Each structure stands twice: as C-alpha cells, then as structure tokens.
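Subject: design request, 437 residues
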C-alpha cells in the first residue's frame, strides 16, 4: 500500500515544522537559478503532453462545390481504406458531391455507358419520335454483338420497352445496338448524338465510341464525376428509369416461344435495402464498376465505383459508401421543375399573376438530423413587368437554416403572360376606381 502523502515540512499533521533556510551568497543564487530551471522544464513537459485544443471541423462544401479528395480512411471520409481506382458520393437532390477519390480521372466505364443510351431512348419517347410499344426489327449487326446478350435474332421483332428492360436489367449489348439503329438509323449517328448530349450536359471528361461500352483500347471514357452527373440527370428528369433498373428478375418476351429469364447484373438491388438502380460495368480494361442509387425515406444518394480490384470489392465499397452517406447526411428535396411554388404579381399583363417554378431540381444536403430545420422562401421583385416569357428568370429560391443561407437557385415563370392592350388597362383602371358590384 503506498505511503500516505505528508504535508510540506516532513512531519505529520500537528508536528513541529523546521525553520526555512534562505540561500546565502553565490551558492544561494546558484541554487535559486537551478530551481527556476527545474520549474521551467516541468512546465514545458506538462505543456508538451497536454492535449491540443480541438480544431473546428471544416464546413461541408456547398452545393456544387468540390470536397477535399482523398482516401476513404482519411478524416472526414467514410472511414475505410478504399481500394477501387475512383469513387464518388453525390446527393442527387442538391447535386452536392459529398466525397470523392480521383473523381475527375477519365476511365473506361464499360456498360455504365449504357446510361446515355437509355437517356437518349427515353428522350426520344418524350419527343414522340418513338413509342414504348413500337416493334423494332433486329438487324444482323445487333444479333452479332458479343458480350452480355438478350439473344436477339436477326429479323425478330421486339418492343422498345422490352429492349429498354434488356439493357437496364441484363445489360444486353445487342439490345443497345437495336435501340441505336431504331432511333438514329445507324450506330455511328447514334454515337454522335451520345457525344453531343454529353457536351450539352457538361460532361467534360466523357467520350463515347459505341452505345454499349464493350469496346476496349480505345474505348468509351467517363470520369466518376461525369457518371454521377449523368445519373443525377437521368434520375431527376426521367425517374421512370428506376422502374426498370429496380427489377431483380423478370421475363423478357413473356408468353412467346422465345421468352427469356432476366437477372439484374446489379446485385445490390437484391442485397441492399433501398437500392433501385442504376448500372454495372465490366471489361478487361475497366475492371468491376458500378453506379448505384438508393433511397430511404426522403434521402437518396448516388455512389460511383470505378475500377475495383475484384467484384466483391465493388459491392463492398459501394455498400459502405451508401452506409456512410445515410448515416452522415440528410438530403432535403425542396422543389422540382414544373412544381408551382407560388404566383407572383404581373404589371400591365393580360393576367395579373404568373406561377413560378425552378429551372432544375433544387435541394440541400445537411448533416444528419438537421433536415427538419431547413426552410425556404422566394425572393422576387414584384410586380414583374409584362410581357413575361415562359422560362424567364424572375427571382430566386433560397433555402435557409435559421438566418443562415444554405443554397439558392433561380426561379422562372411557368407560363407566358402577354402585355395587356390599352382597352384592357383602361377597363382595369376604371374597375379599380369604381368597383363593379
């Protein structure tokens, strides 16, 4: 048992204290200096081992801003050593990139390229160029496409919708060629349109040479950031794609003599709760890759994994990045294009008000648990002078946490308002002066 600590002076409580002796002469000065030196050493040691004051965490990047890149095991990241060549996590509501590794490095996306083929197909349907129930005649070139296949045969007739399902679920290369030929007349013109659309969407590190991603050296190129941007656009503007990409297993050509059982190449559709897309990729050059999206409640996130060392790593890292995103952030969707936010007053227009909406999907990303504090309002200088054109910017929408502005976006007129003629303005003036009863 340790000896009890004694009071200064050496005696126990109540004992007689020895008289202090002061240092005398030069020897006394030396002893005093030595005591000061010892005190300084002790204080320095204490300061050296004392814990440093905590450093305030850097604020999360705002919408559209790039977070610090690095390994998933670094501070502020998902907390595990990432082995894949390129990874990225995005909130599709805000467009904010939450974490990335080599996000701007162009890589072979393999079958992830098919997202652009699917986008152009859905846009052709919206434009009335083709319909889901159109019958497509399969060409010999489509039949001869190697790799993943829906076993199409030359001369066979199959619906556009079945071709979409074959691409989205089974990653069928022959179905991609059949769609490309049906929409653009031949594959080369379709690939030109793929590259044109990529430029329109701001995919600056993307190049397509085929509609399916099968070609190696030189093949298609996309960065993880471009994959996420394309995925976000597809989800936000064509959410119907998730109806197909969320299918785990289903029949193709059901009820015919050529029915075929499809199984989704994206195993996370079956393995991870909330996953409803989006696309896998694998060639010798690309390595196992995937872009996956999942939704839980109001939260949806996109994860891109390119160039994993093996397929198990692809699924594991995608799952862990989704876990991290759902545990760390609240995704707060605020407004969608076409959604009326409110009506604003119009000066000298044939109508007195015009509804306003947003140009693009607008939302914010905040730390987990803070989503309920987000509020939004409109900043519009009223009245807006007529004439008003549809799509004309008239103000902005602002999302706030208390008095702190989180993000903003333009708001536009949802309809046209023509300028009123003199008779209408005079009648309105007299109606205001002498209201009709």
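Subject: RE: design request

Done. Sequence follows.
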């Amino acid at each position: 048992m340790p000896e009890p600590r004694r009071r200064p002076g050496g005696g126990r409580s109540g004992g007689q204290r020895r008289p202090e002796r002061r240092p005398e002469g030069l020897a006394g000065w030396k002893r005093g200096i030595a005591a000061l030196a010892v005190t300084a050493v002790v204080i320095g040691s204490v300061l050296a081992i004392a814990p440093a004051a905590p450093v305030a965490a850097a604020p999360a990047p705002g919408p559209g801003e790039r977070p610090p890149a690095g390994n998933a095991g670094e501070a502020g990241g998902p907390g595990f050593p990432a082995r894949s060549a390129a990874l990225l996590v995005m909130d599709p509501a805000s467009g904010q990139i939450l974490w990335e590794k080599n996000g701007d490095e162009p890589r072979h996306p393999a079958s992830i390229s098919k997202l652009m083929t699917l986008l152009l197909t859905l846009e052709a349907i919206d434009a009335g160029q083709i319909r889901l129930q159109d019958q497509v005649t399969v060409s010999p070139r489509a039949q001869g496409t190697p790799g993943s296949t829906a076993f199409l045969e030359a001369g066979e007739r199959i619906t556009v919708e079945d071709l979409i399902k074959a691409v989205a679920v089974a990653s069928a290369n022959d179905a991609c060629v059949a769609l490309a030929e049906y929409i653009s007349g031949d594959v080369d013109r379709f690939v030109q349109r793929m590259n044109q659309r990529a430029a329109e969407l701001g995919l600056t590190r993307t190049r397509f040479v085929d509609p399916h991603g099968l070609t190696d050296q030189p093949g298609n190129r996309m960065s993880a950031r471009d994959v996420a941007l394309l995925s976000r656009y597809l989800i936000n503007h064509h959410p119907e794609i998730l109806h197909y990409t969320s299918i785990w297993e289903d029949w193709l050509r059901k009820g015919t003599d050529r029915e075929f059982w499809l199984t989704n190449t994206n195993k996370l559709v079956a393995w991870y709760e909330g996953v409803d897309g989006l696309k896998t990729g694998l060639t010798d050059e690309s390595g196992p890759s995937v872009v996956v999206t999942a939704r839980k409640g109001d939260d949806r996130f996109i994860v891109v994994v390119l160039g994993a060392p093996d397929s198990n790593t692809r699924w594991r890292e995608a799952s862990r990045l989704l876990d991290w995103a759902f545990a760390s952030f609240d995704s707060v969707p605020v407004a969608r294009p076409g959604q009326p936010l409110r009506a604003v007053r119009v000066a000298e227009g044939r109508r007195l008000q015009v509804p306003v909406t947003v140009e693009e999907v607008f939302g914010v990303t905040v730390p987990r648990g803070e989503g309920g504090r987000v509020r939004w309002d409109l900043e519009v200088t009223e009245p807006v002078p007529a004439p008003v054109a549809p799509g004309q910017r008239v103000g902005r929408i602002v999302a706030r946490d208390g008095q702190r502005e989180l993000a903003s976006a333009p708001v536009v007129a949802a309809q046209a308002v023509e300028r009123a003629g003199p008779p209408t303005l005079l009648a309105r003036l007299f109606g205001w002066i002498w209201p009709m009863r």
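The chain has eleven helices and 17 strands.
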